[in-house]
Amino acid sequence: MIGKLIILWHYLRTKYRFRLMGRDRLKRWQLKRILRHLKAVRRLSPFYREHWGHSSLAEWERLPAIDKTLMMEHFDKLNTLGIRKDDAFRIALEAEHSRDFSPMIGNVTIGLSSGTSGNRGLFLVSARERLAWVGCVTAKVLPRSLFHRERIAFFLRANSNLYGSVDSGSLKFDFYDLLDPLEEHISKLNGSLPTLLVAPPSVLRFLADAKRSGRLQIAPLKIVSVAETLDPLDERYIREAFGQIVHQIYQCTEGFLASTCAHGTLHLNEDIVCIQKEYLDAKLRKFVPVITDFSRRAQPIVRYRLNDILTEAAAPCPCGSPFTAIERIEGRCDDMVYLRPSRRQGPLVPLFPDFLTRVVITSAPVVQQYRIVQHAPDKIDIFLLVEDAERQRVQEAVLLSLESLCRRMECALPFVRFRDYDHTPGAVKLRRVERRFALEADHQAV
């Protein structure tokens, strides 16, 4: 009973408290929560106590930042529950192998990130934090109120007690394992008829194909994209197939960071996290988020620098929310493309992933799917799914568009190899733009 009351309190707070709050008032409220949280973290976490030294919490925005490497290196002293990294990894890996995601350490949920960057991360969520998360996420994501009966179909590579906590009362939660063949899920979906469909965009594309062909009969009230970057090409295809807005959740090991409003605009969840902007290009509104989550103490996340590139919206959202609006999540900093300069010598020229995305989707509207993989500063593979009759024309159009981009950015046109599209949705995350070489010290970009 107490658990249900905690969920309800966080649901109502999330749903209604910030609706009419202005930006200035939000920042004042946020600051009070952050300072109170940091005092507790300094007391409870040996790592942060040492990391901050004698720094004043009043100037918390200048506290030394951390990243995933530092967090995992000091995991045992960073978390406030005395949980050892080796024990948490063992339980999380056993769950992935057995596909039984119920085991916990005491009443603490253990999670494991997918590790697309080669560095898998752990997350800990206490029982009370789990209930708060359920209240918050249901307020932001459910198609109707908490008091309506909803059937949730959730596609992901690994389940969690965190997600399973949603399955209660009027909410029916069904986990669809992406390690199973996707075709096998079609009949299950047709039988359960979910009102809320949550899946990575590559999986939503597959389901959109099934919907168009008549094999999938579901008509969910809301569709939510998770886990992968939602590409404009995919968004349009899924929206047209299901006839509705494609919503998004931006969540990772480090927290529940953003979600879409009724207009489909992604907003930072500034009622539970504070996100500082480390601008990569202020004119283009592109920044790396530095996160302080003031809603979690089991595994404190304070001044944590993510490796993602976000583009801030140019104008406020018509929904009137005081939370920062985001135009797009582009992907990881590691997937910025670097090309040789037009002149013979000089540093490599950086290109944001969406520059390459636009090269493809604006020059050739008939492209159905694509991937761009950079192997070296002068070598790129472009994978295209296109009708055979259009292939030659599309390749020429894409190459002309890439040449135009290179002239504007004053970089040399790389050798481009066109290949057939080869990604199968499921266990491996889709990355539309991917860089597969490391920057050397003598080739650092401008």
Describe this structure in words.
- By secondary structure, this protein is of the alpha/beta class.
- The protein folds into two domains: 2-333, ANL, N-terminal domain (Rossmann fold); 336-443, 2-Layer Sandwich (GMP Synthetase, Chain A, domain 3).
- It is built from 13 helices and 20 strands.
- The chain has helices spanning 2-16, 23-44, 46-52, 68-73, 75-78, 85-98, 127-141, 161-164, 185-192, 201-213, 232-242, 353-363, 391-409; strands at residues 109-112, 122-125, 150-156, 171-177, 196-199, 222-225, 246-252, 255-260, 266-268, 273-281, 286-293, 301-305, 308-312, 325-332, 337-339, 349-351, 369-376, 379-385, 415-420, 433-435.
- The strands form four sheets. Strands 3, 4, 5, 6, 7, 8, 9, 10, 11, 12, 13 and 14 form a twelve-stranded mixed β-sheet that branches. A four-stranded mixed β-sheet has the order 19-18-17-20, with helices on one face. Strands 1-2 form a two-stranded antiparallel sheet.
- Helix 2 (23-44) packs across helix 3.
- The longest helix is centred in the N-terminal third of the chain and has 22 residues, at 23-44.
- The model has no long low-confidence stretch (mean pLDDT 90).
- This is Adenylate cyclase.
- It comes from Paenibacillus contaminans.
- InterPro entries: ANL_N_sf, CapK_Type1_Caps_Biosynth, CHP02304_F390_synth-rel.
